[in-house]
Design goal:
Length: 345
């Protein structure tokens, strides 16, 4: 090779390499902003990450060499120039590792690359200062070979990695935010209802989480009210309604025993808390699901409100107990939290 041409090349390279390296880094910064994060076994836009990393590191090394040569042109000691090249190369590698958000490297591979780069940066900078041109070109050739080996190893590792299984969506479930609650709770007072009748009144409420990304689906939540009565109450049913009748009304199975929980219902088998099906009541103020804005939304409402007003002739006796529960219709389970009230006739 013509030595004059080599010297012209070397005189030209340091000054322009600074701008070349800055251009490479600018492209890299734009790429990172548009296609984060940075993972070597994936693609950033149309280009595999494994091919981008060596290009960026080579640009940083050229920048280190160019700046150190420019420092030398300002008559600063070559040792300061060499250390400046080393620091710039090291900072360049660390910036790629830290700010480039490389997620999937093996730590040993990264340590080896950093050691190799810093060592080559020192050798190349010193050789540059002593004008050992052929050694310099040899080092640059070895650097290129190192990067080619690195690229091939990463590509082989990425090719051998099994494809990632798709991330399963979160399990759809009901999550309570508040409730279920009765108001009032505890023992509910019985009041005259006129015409020889009496009644008790209480409201029902519950609030559900709405966070589909976490699997919290309001439509999975439904309220259920259960009832049980004691022997004295069963005896009063017989006295009021006739021999053999031991239930409050015909909506219940005729032979249902006292002191046994059963889902509450009306005479036509309508029941509290259903979002769909033959048991739905869906009456404003009495049995309704509302969205966050307070509008009726039986399918996806996050808040349940209801009111019950059991009653009958003043001849009713004994004790009725009610429980309010929430069921998860998506996972077929009963949530542990319940509310309870008691009516003493």
């Amino acid at each position: 090779m013509n030595s004059a041409a080599v010297h012209i090349f070397l005189d030209w390279l340091p000054q322009w390499s600074v701008f070349l390296s800055l251009a490479i880094l600018a492209v890299f910064g734009f790429w990172q902003a548009r296609y984060p994060p940075f993972k070597p076994c994936e693609k950033v836009g149309p280009v595999p990450n494994a091919l981008l990393i060596p290009i960026i590191l080579i640009g940083l090394l050229i920048l280190a060499l160019g700046v150190s040569q420019l420092v030398g042109d300002m008559q600063i000691s070559r040792w300061w120039g060499g250390w400046l090249g080393l620091v710039l190369a090291s900072l360049g590698v660390l910036s790629v590792v830290i700010f480039g958000r490389i997620k999937e490297y093996y730590p040993k591979m990264m340590i080896g690359v950093i050691i190799a780069l810093t060592g080559i940066a020192v050798l190349t900078t010193i050789l540059w200062w002593f004008w050992f041109v052929w050694w310099l070109l040899l080092i640059l050739l070895l650097l290129l070979i190192l990067y080619l080996i690195w690229i091939c190893s990463i590509i082989l590792v990425c090719a051998s990695k099994p494809p990632r299984p798709p991330v399963a969506p979160p399990v759809r479930r009901c999550t309570l935010v508040n409730g279920p609650t009765y108001t009032p709770n505890g023992v509910v007072p019985v009041v005259p209802a006129g015409a020889g009748r009496e009644s008790a009144s209480f409201s029902l409420a519950a609030t559900f989480a709405d966070n589909p990304a976490a699997g919290d689906i309001p439509s999975c939540c439904e309220v259920r009210q259960f009832i049980r009565w004691d022997a004295a109450a069963a005896a009063s049913f017989t006295a009021i309604r006739g021999p053999g009748i031991i239930v409050p009304h015909n909506g219940f199975p005729a032979n249902h025993p006292h002191d046994t929980w059963i889902e509450d219902r009306g005479a036509t088998d309508l029941r509290y808390g259903y979002r769909s099906g033959p048991h739905v009541i869906n009456v404003a103020g009495g049995d309704q699901y509302l969205n966050a804005a307070g509008a009726a939304d039986i399918a996806n409402g996050v808040r349940y409100t209801g009111r019950d007003q059991p009653g009958g002739p003043v001849a009713l006796a004994g004790q009725w107990r009610f429980e309010l529960r929430v069921v998860d219709t998506c996972t077929n389970r009963n949530l542990a939290v319940v509310a309870a009230v008691t009516i003493n006739w």
